[in-house]
Amino acid sequence: MELDPRKSRILTCVVESYIRTGEPIGSKLIAAMLEDTVSSATVRNDLAYLGEQGYIEQPHTSAGRIPTHRGLRYYLDHLMSPQPLEDATRGEIDALFNYCDPDPNRVLEGATRMLAKETGCFAISTTISRQSLFVKRIEIIPATAHTVVILLLCSNGMVKNKVCRVNFNLTPNVVDFFQSFANGRLAGRSLNEITAQYINSMAFTLGEHTDIFAPLLAAIYELCREACEGALYRSGTGNLLEHPELRNVADRLYRLLDSREEMLRIIGSRENDLFVSVGRENARSEMENSSMIVARYRIGEDSIGALGLVGPVRMDYARLIPHVEYFANMLSRMLSDTLNNGL
Q: What pLDDT does residue 169 have?
């Protein structure tokens, strides 16, 4: 059911006052915020109606009103006006992405730290593995006569690396041979197809050289498994203690946020470009006093990751949603440019 304009304005006053102060608001103050275009008596009647419909509530009998989770959802879906980023903030974010040859992993980690710093919330980012994720290239870089660094470059722009020691001399011809061999059988192949059985079949084709190159093949397999799991970066755990309403649940919330498996599942559970979960809309009871804003970043049409914020239910959505969206758009642009330039 859609609210009429006057009730919408009153609900907006209740929500935005609660976001600013965390305190209930009374009818006289609402009337003043509306510049006395509506009488206190009319405001009281509309507050009663909004309460009956489940949009607002009184914490106790003599108090003013605060929004319910349903009221916050209505505000987000129908009433909120996002606040554009200030030029200075936009410039700071842009500077993070202005690398000549950025390492996508470092950029994602740096973006998470900056997002936490800019917003005062807990920030999280992840790459999300899809059936379409494939190996773009394998590179073998000699470090010493018996040590190489193996680079796995994925179609989502992520780079995985591992140091591997071998029991033979790494001549240029040997390195070129194995790099060509690995790319010939792995480049363009879905990571989900690169199973232990497939790696064993590759080793079998090497014949008498199977044992020699086995450590390199094992290292490549480990990198492929790591890429399938997805990267996960977190920052700003301490920010949650700045919000009084989260202090009593901090221990339970921290344990949830510290669980790699749970956070990958939660942040990867939606396909929307942007979604906001308010309080009890979150599937986990640990987050019933929290809200989450998550935006996806893409290469072309393919969703390859997500980043977001966790904060109190009364977080400043109008300010924070544009932050998350801008970070996601910059990540999409940076990763697309990197791949187009031949990462």
A: 87
**Closest to 6 measured CA to CA, from 33, 38, 36:** 38
What whole-number distance in Å separates Cα of residue 110 and Cα of residue 278?
A: 26
User: Residue 143: which residues within 8 A CB-CB, separation 6 or more?
Assistant: 149, 163
CA distance readout (Å), 83 to 71, 129, 210, 252: 20, 32, 60, 32
Q: Based on the number of CB atoms within 10 Å of its own CB, is 142 exposed (0-12), middle (13-18) or buried (19 or more)?
A: middle
Structure tokens at 248: 């009593």
Produce one character per residue of 69-102: b if its CB has 16 or more CB atoms within 10 Å, e if not.
bbbbbbbbeebbeeeebeeeeeeebeebbeeeeb
* pTM of the complete model: 0.79
Q: What is the pLDDT of residues 136-164, one digit of tens each?
A: 999 999 999 899 999 999 887 778 899 99
- Which two structure tokens, joined as six digits, stand for 134? 């494939």
For the chain, give the longest Cα–Cα distance.
91
The number of beta carbons lying within 10 Å of the beta carbon of residue 39 is 12
Residue 325 has a CB neighbour count (10 Å cut-off) of 17
Give the model's confidence band at 52: pLDDT under 50 very low, under 70 low, under 90 confident, else very high: very high
Residue 247 is predicted with a pLDDT of 84
